[in-house]
Amino acid sequence: MSKKLPAIPVHIVDDDADVRLSVSFMLRGEGHECTLHESGEQFLDVVADLEPGCILLDLHLGDGDGLDIQRRLADRGISMPVVLMTGHGDVSTAVKAMKLGAIDFIQKPFGKADLMTALKAAGELVGQTTQMDGERAEAQQLIELLSPRERQVLDGLAHGQHNKTIAFELGISPRTVEIHRANAMRKLEVRTLPEMLHIAFQAGVMEG
Per CATH, the architecture of 10-134 is what? Predict the structure, then answer.
């Protein structure tokens, strides 16, 4: 007998009320909490306030394309795993969905076994992304302790610049850069440059 999957929140986005109800009935029977959303736009309006979980997203929504909703979720930094549902699946659409980060692609009408298989992969990712989001938030809170000048010095270090280069770009002396660097390390509670850069990476300072 297969091991029962850990319960995760599932956010169902489908313009067909019958589908929303039938899928949520299956999932709630397995202990999963569900939120139901009748359109992509309505889901986008509330997604930031939802508990991290899996997004079960219809590919053909009445108010738009599920792939477009997936892109907009990514643009907002929403890291919840996405499983796409469609009644008219094809290989090219599946490839596009996977390139955009979908973890699975299931074709209607799908059975409970197919849905549970997709959610198994999603459940593993939910735990990982929740932990990563928590670490990112903690790192960002630490970065906010820095003064504007300390943040500028950290930005330079994060992008591989030496003290002299940072000093030249900021119009200050290398010694002043060293002082700001030391103050930043003290506030971030680290002792080495790699430790400081690790926090910068978690907070997103090193992106772009």
Answer: 3-Layer(aba) Sandwich (3.40)
